[in-house]
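About this split. The held-out portion is used to measure sequence recovery: a designer receives only the structure tokens and must propose an amino acid at every position. Recovery is the fraction of positions where the proposal matches the reference. Here is one held-out target exactly as it appears in the evaluation file.
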């Protein structure tokens, strides 16, 4: 019988796994038990509507047997089992698993430990076993199969006889070496301790035969006599962690649960649970990851919460429970009010589900608000990871969620030089300031250098610097914040008290006309500026469309050809502008060159691209000659 090779990526990862000097070998057990539990979940779910399964809820179990002399651990479940294709697809390749992709991306870090902390499910067993045999029969399939492998060189699948549906995993434990002790995994006390540590909440009994000293029934109490007996013992408490009293669960337990359940190798940044009684009664246990999931910004990432009905898993990722702007939240929801018979499709339209979702949205919002209030540093770290996502909540669904989100978003402040909330901004606003000022641009740095911001900064005004394309849409969608409207100082002619640096030249319409005629339809208007100080020119956008929007739309919807109306503002007290004016009569050709030069400068400062770079270069050269 020839061996089937593992897919090439799998082989590489397996090699790494087998040869890694890994200190947490023990996680192999939790991975196998968790697979067994998932398999039972699946069959249990079927059994609710299919009489043929023939098992009651309390008949589902996971068994562990230890054969110390032969160095064998066997883990047996009566879950759904696997057929030949399942074995090939599930155990023949790990290339598609999230952990592998993660490993690939982080290969440079050379951090082999990640493999173990992350767990690569079933394959972690190769850390302690040099041979793994899987005997399995799938529900509704007559033929049973055996899958056998001793590591990276491949696996064999053969047909076998197996009376019961379910899966048996047989691990041949490695011999001890000078540096590694594998024999401890053949000790019952050790296995029992590992189950308590990692798999206590598993909702099916994990059973192992244990030796006890038992008081002999007819023994005299004065002079007790004991028998050594072996009895099946349930090693886990079986109470789901979210059903336990918050104060009885340690931080470690929450962290372990999170890492195992949601395939993260780092502790969550935030854990919060809720017990809600009302129209719909439910418990939730939610987590916020401390890092952005590696696939978060890809199509592969699916938002959602695990949905249970009285402890029975109905859906692994119920996306309807989370709005898009909170898609980073992971966790579990358990409600006794959901009927198990409703099909999964039906469930999506379920009114109860909608009710849970809207309650959860508020709970998450409250949790984030109190985080922001009580641990600014922690919140800002979180915000660096997921803030952009939250901002989308301001525009999503035509602004339907904006009130839930408006106090969770942060913007960079020109005066505070750090991230601030809109509330903080408004509280600092002077009596004489009507609107919230913001400025859009490519980056905080480039916005800070814009001629427009210079003017307001000098007046001591606080400006919110907005370098994300979403920002402007967000303000537009909000309309106002607690009655204060938003003004983009890059675009709008914001009238400020004491704006009177008007000069004589202001009434010089000939100059403006000359420049406009020279530039043609490159600009919609040329005006004397009230806000320019050290810069000769700037470009502002008129009408609703800003330059940042124009840039965004050029990427998002190029066919729409959205273009901002360009207004060239010139600074009448700047020597460069004066030189231009002087030349209009003295040397018209030169004046035209100056006008084009200043226009292109304004284009560059606005973060737009010069339409014809080589023409612009020629222009500069001709002026230098
Ligand atoms: P993961 O559990 O993360 O999907 P694993 O490598 O642990 O990755 O397992 C791969 C797949 O093999 C599982 O998703 C499941 O489909 C199947 N599998 C593993 N163990 C069992 C089992 N005891 N019973 C049925 N299927 C199993």
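Reference sequence for scoring:
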């Amino acid at each position: 019988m020839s061996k089937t090779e593992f897919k090439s990526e799998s082989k590489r990862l397996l090699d790494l796994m087998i040869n890694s000097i890994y200190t947490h070998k023990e996680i192999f057990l939790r991975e196998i038990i968790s697979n067994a539990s998932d398999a039972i979940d699946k069959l249990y779910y079927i059994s609710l509507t299919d009489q043929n399964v023939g098992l009651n809820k309390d008949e589902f179990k996971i068994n562990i047997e230890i054969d110390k002399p032969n160095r064998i651990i066997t883990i047996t479940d009566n879950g759904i089992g696997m057929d030949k294709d399942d074995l090939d697809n599930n155990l023949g390749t790990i290339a598609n698993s999230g952990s592998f992709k993660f490993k690939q991306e982080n290969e440079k870090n050379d951090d082999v430990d990640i493999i173990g902390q992350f767990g690569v499910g079933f394959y972690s067993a190769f850390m302690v076993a040099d041979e793994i045999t899987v005997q399995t029969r799938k529900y509704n399939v007559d033929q049973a199969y055996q899958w056998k492998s001793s590591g990276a060189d491949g696996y064999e699948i053969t047909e076998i006889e197996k009376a019961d549906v379910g899966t048996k995993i047989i691990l041949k434990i490695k011999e001890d070496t000078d540096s590694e002790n594998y024999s401890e995994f053949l000790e019952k006390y050790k296995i029992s301790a590992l189950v308590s540590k990692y798999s206590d909440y598993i909702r099916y009994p994990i059973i192992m035969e244990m030796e006890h000293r038992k008081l002999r029934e007819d023994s005299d109490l004065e002079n007790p006599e004991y028998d050594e007996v072996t009895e099946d013992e349930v090693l886990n408490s079986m109470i789901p962690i979210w059903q336990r009293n918050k104060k009885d669960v340690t931080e470690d337990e929450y962290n372990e649960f999170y890492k195992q359940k949601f395939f993260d190798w780092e502790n969550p940044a935030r854990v919060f649970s809720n017990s809600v009684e009302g129209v719909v009664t439910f418990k939730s246990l939610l987590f916020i990851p401390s890092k952005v999931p590696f696939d978060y910004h890809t199509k592969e990432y699916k938002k959602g919460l695990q949905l249970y009905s009285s402890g029975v898993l109905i859906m692994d990722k119920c996306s309807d429970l989370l709005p898009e702007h909170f898609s980073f939240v992971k966790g579990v929801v358990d409600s006794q009010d959901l009927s198990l018979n409703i099909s999964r499709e039906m469930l999506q339209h379920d009114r109860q589900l909608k009710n849970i979702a809207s309650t959860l949205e508020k709970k998450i919002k409250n949790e984030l608000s109190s985080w922001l209030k009580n641990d600014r540093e922690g919140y800002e770290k979180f915000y660096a990871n997921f803030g952009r996502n939250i901002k989308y909540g301001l525009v999503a669904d035509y602004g339907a969620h904006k009130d839930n989100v408006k106090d969770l978003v942060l913007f960079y402040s020109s005066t505070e030089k750090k991230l601030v909330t809109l509330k903080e901004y408004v509280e600092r606003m002077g009596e004489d300031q009507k609107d919230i000022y913001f400025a859009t641009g490519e980056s905080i740095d480039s916005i800070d250098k814009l001629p427009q911001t210079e003017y307001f900064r000098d007046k001591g005004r606080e400006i919110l610097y907005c370098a994300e394309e979403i920002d402007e849409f967000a303000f537009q969608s909000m309309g106002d914040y607690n009655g204060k409207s938003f003004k983009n100082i890059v675009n709008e002619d914001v009238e400020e008290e004491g704006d009177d640096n008007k000069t004589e030249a202001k009434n010089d319409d000939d100059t403006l006309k000359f420049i406009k005629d020279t530039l043609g339809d490159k600009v919609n208007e040329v005006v004397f500026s009230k806000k320019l100080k050290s810069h000769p020119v700037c470009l502002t956008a008129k009408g609703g469309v800003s330059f940042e929007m124009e840039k965004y739309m050029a990427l998002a919807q190029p066919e729409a050809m959205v273009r901002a109306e360009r207004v060239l503002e010139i600074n009448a007290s700047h020597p460069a502008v004066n030189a231009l004016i002087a030349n209009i009569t003295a040397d018209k050709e030169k004046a035209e060159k100056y006008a084009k030069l200043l226009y292109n400068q304004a284009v560059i400062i606005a973060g737009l691209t010069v339409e014809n770079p080589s023409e612009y270069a020629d222009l500069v050269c001709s002026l230098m000659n």
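Annotator remark: The chain has a mean pLDDT of 86.
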